[in-house]
Design a protein that fits this description.
This protein is about 85% helix and about 0% strand. It has 18 helices and no strands.
């Protein structure tokens, strides 16, 4: 699958391509995980813990290199000039972190089945770091359509095989072949371009490696801190609550984090971050204007989703996972607060990266890691599930306060009028929902509250279009 720098679709179409691929992948993944969850709560807990370990291995294998790579491409550096060095650096990190993953699993005393699950899924997630370099090149050229086709095809093959294995009654390890198949399909899809870029690289290997590492080091430490403070809760849960607590937490976190990723990874990371990086270099006035437009839209878009997940947690979790996940439904209203927090934080994060403030972000993320570790150590021994949820919400709120506060000071990210309108709509929606519940008309109250928040979203979108029209 080749990438050409021909006609580029607009950002909305780029987002639509990736969103379609994401929905396809998430839809198939959801079916697979739901089948697994209904089959065995303990097995589901093991798989979700292994996915968490695999995502840490992926982040450690990339160590922020993708952001450094993309910023270099935004500055018109040819992909072939860096590709070989980036790949070798990732391979070295992957090898070292794979050994660390095996050592961690042995140190924790995981039983053989959990150890094998963690290694199969974890190593494949780590290999995804190589194909992600190909996706970065696609994004820099504005060819998210090519990226979307490959992501969708690989997910259909991998998760489709996993679903077939579960329906056929295969064992746990046979079902987990979904991840190796997905990773190998993605690597095969980008192999031609990756091989061509490798051969045409002009930089000396070792000096190029040193240069790539020095440029990526702040992103490296930043990515490590970010993935650890997002995943630390799972390990405390496994230690103090066992696989059952991990399963309950994972059931609701899959919904909350899945929605947050649509904004942070698909829209912001894959579509708008390349735009922001180029605008900061070429037109900082437009950079600030576009940032304010998307801040208003993202804040307004997060609220209706949060309301539905919070008020309908029992119905949603019960329908998807069954009655054995009642604890997940109980904590989902609190955990759903991570959605609006993540939407605005991730926008601020990518804006700060575009402005070259990665060292400042690193200190914020390191603080978030320390806070989450402290809260988990304090709260999870006595109340594992609730403690992990409170620690996550508090940590994300603190980190967002720092990143959004910096962007507010630098760019005026939210106007006073916009902030008052959004906060007013939120307060009014909560009052309407409470009044409906008190009057015995819960569904009617929730529908009216949802309608008010959707009206606020429409206002934010229309208001930004009207302001942008004269420009």
């Amino acid at each position: 699958m080749s990438v050409q720098a021909g006609e580029k679709p607009g950002w909305a179409r780029q987002f639509a391509y990736l969103l379609a691929a994401r929905w396809l992948r998430d839809g198939i993944q959801a079916v697979f995980l739901l089948l697994l969850a209904r089959r065995s709560v303990e097995t589901y807990g093991h798989v979700m813990l292994a996915i968490g370990l695999g995502q840490i291995l992926l982040f450690c294998s990339e160590f922020g290199i993708n952001q450094h790579f993309l910023l270099k491409l935004a500055d018109r550096t040819p992909p072939s000039a860096l590709f070989r060095q980036v790949t070798l650096l990732k391979l070295a990190l992957f090898a070292a972190c794979s050994v660390a993953l095996a050592g961690f699993c042995l140190w924790q005393g995981y039983p053989p089945e959990l150890f094998a699950t963690a290694m199969v899924i974890g190593l494949c997630f780590g290999l995804d770091a190589m194909v992600n370099s190909y996706y970065v090149v696609c994004q820099s050229l504005g060819r998210q359509d090519v990226e979307a086709r490959l992501r969708g095809a690989a997910a259909a093959l991998g998760y489709g095989a996993g679903i077939a294995a579960l329906l056929a009654g295969a064992g746990q390890l046979a079902a987990l072949l979904f991840k190796p198949l997905e990773t190998l399909a993605a690597l095969a899809g980008g192999a031609r371009m990756m091989a061509r870029s490798w051969r045409s690289s002009t930089r000396p290997i070792f000096s190029g490696l040193r240069s790539a590492w020095q440029g990526a080091l702040p992103f490296t430490l930043m990515a490590l801190a970010a993935i650890l403070y997002n995943k630390l809760n799972m390990f405390f849960l496994q230690s103090h609550g066992g696989a059952q607590a991990v399963a309950q937490y994972s059931a609701t976190w899959q919904l909350v984090d899945g929605i947050a990723v649509l904004a942070s990874s698909v829209l912001l990371g894959n579509v708008l971050f390349p735009v922001f990086a180029k605008l900061w270099i070429r037109d900082q006035e437009s950079f600030a204007r576009v940032a304010r437009e998307h801040a208003a839209r993202l804040a307004a878009a997060a609220l209706p989703v949060t309301l539905v997940l919070a008020l309908e947690s029992g119905r949603i979790i019960g329908l998807l996972y069954g009655p054995q996940y009642g604890e997940a439904a109980r904590v989902q209203p609190l955990l759903s607060l991570c959605i609006p927090i993540s939407f605005v934080h991730n926008l601020a994060y990518y804006l700060l990266l575009s402005m070259g403030r990665q060292r400042l972000v690193l200190w914020i993320f390191a603080g978030g890691l320390a806070v989450n570790a402290g809260l988990c150590a304090l709260l999870t021994p006595a109340m594992p599930l609730d403690g992990a949820v409170w620690a996550m919400v508090a940590t994300k709120a603190l980190v967002a306060l720092c990143t959004v506060g910096l962007c507010q000071r630098m760019l005026g990210l939210f106007t006073a009028r916009e902030a008052l309108a959004t906060c007013g709509a939120t307060a009014a929606a909560l009052v309407i929902a409470w009044a409906g519940n008190a009057a015995g008309l819960a569904l009617a109250g929730e529908a009216l509250a949802l309608g008010l928040l959707l009206l606020n979203l429409w206002r934010a979108i229309r208001g930004n279009r009207a302001q942008a029209a004269p420009c």
